[in-house]
Amino acid sequence: MSSLPTTQQLRERARASLDRIGVAVVEGSGLSARSPITGEDLFGLRATTDDEARQAIAEADQAFRAWRTTPAPVRGELVRTLGDLLRAHKSDLADLITIEAGKIRSEALGEVQEMIDICDFAVGLSRQLYGRTIASERPGHRLAETWHPLGVVGVISAFNFPAAVWSWNTAIALVCGDAVVWKPSELTPLVSLASSRLLDRALERTGAPRALHRLLLGDRAVGETLVDDPRVALVSATGSTRMGREVGPRVAARFGRVLLELGGNNATVVAPSADLDLAVQGIVFAAAGTAGQRCTTLRRLIVHRDVADQLVERLAAVYGRLPIGDPFDEATLVGPLITDAAADAMAAALDRAQAEGGKIISGGRRLGAGGGAYVEPAVVRMPKQTGIVREETFAPILYVLTYDSFEEAVALHNDVPQGLSSSIFTRDQQEAERFLAADGSDCGIANVNIGTSGAEIGGAFGGEKETGGGRESGSDSWRAYMRRATNTVNYTSTLALAQNVSFL
Ligand code: NAD
């Protein structure tokens, strides 16, 4: 394992990035900014109170009322300015992501690039919020649908994409004419302060209402204030299925809208015809990358019996060489887990897998003494899809299962509660198409000859079943952030009532 920076060095690096972005950290109590690199606290921060949260929602609601009548292409200018500021501060924000989420440098830079990309996408979208014209059954009538801004969007986000998830929601919501109140993960407050400050600067620069964005810092309690407030028209919540199970019904009880992006338990099928060189690269990136802490991380490998031994041997060889340690070190490919609790959950899952008949082929040990939670990514061969394999453990564990027929592979693939991302490695075109067909993968994302992680912002992102069913980012996901009105216009002097009924 490579040597680590000290907490004091991380503190100084964080402060320098925050200074350049324009955040003056006001230290306080109630919330800690910490770094998984050393496992120690960086600064104490003040959490948002319940009254402040309600006030923030009220202000955002007021700002929305002005913003909704601002022409959409003008709203796009705000998001363009945010994108420019993100370009200028890409490295600063990436530093904070590495410090607080433990992502290796290339992934942290990649996360900020996603933010820039979604801003570009949203600017284009600001001129394309199309409704449609529908053939009316009545003469002299026009039937159409129009899309209007929705209101305040509450964004609740997870630690593992501390900035990108906010930007996917916020860039789209702003061009759609909404205001945003953001409750980020309590584990990544500095990234949130920095992202929020960049948007504040864009708001100042373009003269848009300042209260179009508000940040609430704190744990789930402040998130609950957002969830229960009837002024919040849409709650877009990203995190564990446990969180979604609590948030979904609460928002539904007040007839609010909800967009849920929850846990995944993603699988890749490796067929006998697969290009194994390609497969090994795709599998290791998806399973061990981000230390297994992506919602799209590859967790289950379903391999044809004829190639299973060979593939597992090659994976074990690559896993044995993975550089683990300081995420700022250019050579590192696997950084720390977010907390000790995450490492404990990984150890418990490995114990359970072995009790259920699994055999650890590679990795699985915790490295270093104390400090950050560094672990070796693990490959575990399982005799069947047991209870632990059907759960999402948010750590780098790859369970390997074998299959004989394609039907069996698809059945195993779909037999889990989650439905986010999936892929198949095959050179058989029929098999590839069958995997993508109606009775193939049941996930929101299904890929061929590429891994399960690393989605592009241009597509709609989200999953089925316990993943929550929401879609955000590209394609027509913007519709979740607007309300639809169906308009009938009669341009004649007669009223065509159904069945020619007359009330006169
Ligand atoms: P988490 O569920 O612990 O927390 C997510 C957010 O929800 C945090 O901001 C937290 O404070 C808040 N929260 C928790 N309970 C709440 C409640 N009752 N009311 C309101 N807010 C509440 O998740 P995490 O550990 O930060 O992130 C990891 C999880 O997120 C994994 O399951 C991962 O798969 C999932 N995830 C999903 C996606 C996706 O797009 N599908 C993306 C990233 C992460």
Q: What would you say this structure looks like, in words?
A:
The structure is a single chain. With 504 residues, the chain is α/β, with parallel strands linked by helices. The chain has two domains: 273 residues, Aldehyde Dehydrogenase, Chain A, domain 1; 183 residues, 3-Layer(aba) Sandwich (Aldehyde Dehydrogenase, Chain A, domain 2), CATH 3.40.309.10. Helices cover 39% and strands 21% of the residues. The chain contains 14 helices and 23 strands. The strands form seven sheets. A seven-stranded mixed β-sheet has the order 12-15-16-11-10-18-19, sandwiched between helices. Helix 4 crosses helix 5. The model has no long low-confidence stretch (mean pLDDT 97). Nicotinamide-adenine-dinucleotide binds next to helix 8 and helix 9.
* Bound small molecules, deduplicated: nicotinamide-adenine-dinucleotide
CATH classification class of the largest domain: Alpha Beta
Overall body shape? globular
Number of domains: 2
Content of β-strand: 15-25%
End-to-end span in angstroms?
87 Å
CATH architecture of the largest domain: 3-Layer(aba) Sandwich
- What's the count of strands? 23
Helical amount: 25-40%
Q: The CATH topology of the largest domain is what? A: Aldehyde Dehydrogenase, Chain A, domain 1
Name the CATH superfamily assignment of the largest domain. Aldehyde Dehydrogenase, Chain A, domain 1
Structural class: alpha/beta
Question: Number of helical runs?
Answer: 14
Q: Radius of gyration, Cα only, in angstroms?
A: 24 Å
Mean pLDDT: 97
Instruction: Provide the spatial order of strands within the biggest beta sheet.
Output: 12-15-16-11-10-18-19
Report the biggest beta sheet as strand number plus sense, adding barrel if it closes.
Answer: 7 strands, mixed
Q: From the structure provided, what is the oligomeric state, counting identical versus distinct chains?
A: single chain
Family: Belongs to the aldehyde dehydrogenase family.
Keywords: NAD, Oxidoreductase
InterPro entries: Ald_DH/histidinol_DH (IPR016161), Ald_DH_C (IPR016163), Ald_DH_CS_GLU (IPR029510), Ald_DH_N (IPR016162), Aldehyde_DH_dom (IPR015590), ALDH7A1-like (IPR044638)
Subunit structure: Homotetramer.
